[in-house]
Design goal:
The complex is a heterotrimer of chains A (112), B (154) and C (118).
Chain A lengths: L3 H4 L1 E3 L4 E7 L5 E3 L2 E7 L2 E4 L4 E13 L2 E13 L4 E13 L4 E7 L7
Parallel strand pairs in A: 1-3, 2-4, 3-5, 4-6, 5-6, 6-7, 7-8, 8-9
Chain B lengths: L4 H9 L4 E3 L4 E7 L3 E4 L2 E13 L4 E3 L2 E8 L2 E13 L4 E8 L1 E4 L4 E8 L3 H13 L4 H19 L1
Parallel strand pairs in B: 1-3, 2-4, 3-4, 4-5, 4-6, 5-7, 6-7, 7-8, 7-9, 8-10
Chain C lengths: L16 E2 L4 E7 L5 E2 L2 E7 L2 E4 L4 E13 L2 E13 L4 E7 L2 E4 L4 E7 L7
Parallel strand pairs in C: 1-3, 2-4, 3-5, 4-6, 5-6, 6-7, 7-8, 7-9, 8-10
The chains are: A mainly beta (112), B alpha/beta (154), C mainly beta (118).
Chain lengths: 112, 154, 118
Amino acid sequence: MTSLHEDTTYILGDLIMEGALDGGDHPVVIDGQFNGDITATDVIIREQGKVTGTVKAKTVVINGYFNGNLICESLNVAATGIVEGEVQANALSIDLGAEVIGSISRANAKSK
Amino acid sequence: MQNSPRSRRQMDKLGSKTVIGASANFTGKITNVRVIEVHGKVHADLTAEKVTIGQAGYFDGAIRADLVVVSGHYEGKMQAGSVWVTATASVSGKLHYETLQMDRGAALNCHIVHNWTVKNAAARSANDDADSPLPKASNKAKAGAETASPEEGA
Amino acid sequence: MFGKNSASPVAPLNYSQINEDVRIRGTITVSERPVVAGQLDGNIYADTLHIASTAIITGEVSAESVTIDGKVLGSIVADKVFLSATAHFEGQLQCQNVAVDNGAYVDAKFTKEPATNG
């Protein structure tokens, strides 16, 4: 990974973003709030992060809150994670303590 | 995967400011910003304390901030306290500043207003609609008009 | 009572096991800790249930705690559910706590069970 600062999109804790975000080739790390669409290679929702909307990514790690549609190759919901909505993932892991409400199904062969 | 010690260390570096990464592209609204660094493309309006537009950054929208450092491309209406336009910057639109530093090489293709304040801005907004070139002069003209009209009338 | 192993200090194993080659059609209710390694077309109700990697259960699984290494097609109603890397689950899940290991095949609806668990 090259310089994490410049290439990684990082949304700070107090920030509220609404709209459409394309992370490009680099990860998107969310500590704040995001409402809308995110398309990225990797999405990490940190413990105080809240994302509502649609997320399309290769790998997704949810330590915080997610509500909406999620399409990814690989998903990890950590113990502090809360996921509500529709998830399509090919590889899935849920840590004990996580809250998952909704449906989980397999993603189609094409991602993003 | 994401919890390896190395990526944890890198993650700990984050946390001081919002960064829009180099290949990222965002369109929408951003609120509650204090410090933001843009290295990708942003189409949004924002009010913040400090905004940095990196060399590869492209910002299209209104910025209202205390401090703005532009090394990339900015287009829109900027109202800031302190502005630093570096050598690789390109600014178009409107640049309202209190203090401005421009490095040699910067490309400014914009309407520049010095010492804008909320009071003056309200007074100027009428003039801005009429798109007069020298707001300072028009302010003087406004002040002058009051003294001038009795003369003109005479 | 049944065994004559008075020499053995260890209590006899207290679980039922459905072996890999067994196929059952019907309902199983057991209060001990069954291990299911065979096939069940029907429902199973238990306290602590272990569905082994060779098992295929088509129906409803209801327990307090379920560990799934095998295949479940149908619904799971439980307090705690563990889906291991070899698990294959399609259907509906109603539980309070769930953990899924990387590698599990999951295609299901997840809901939280209401707090009142019999």
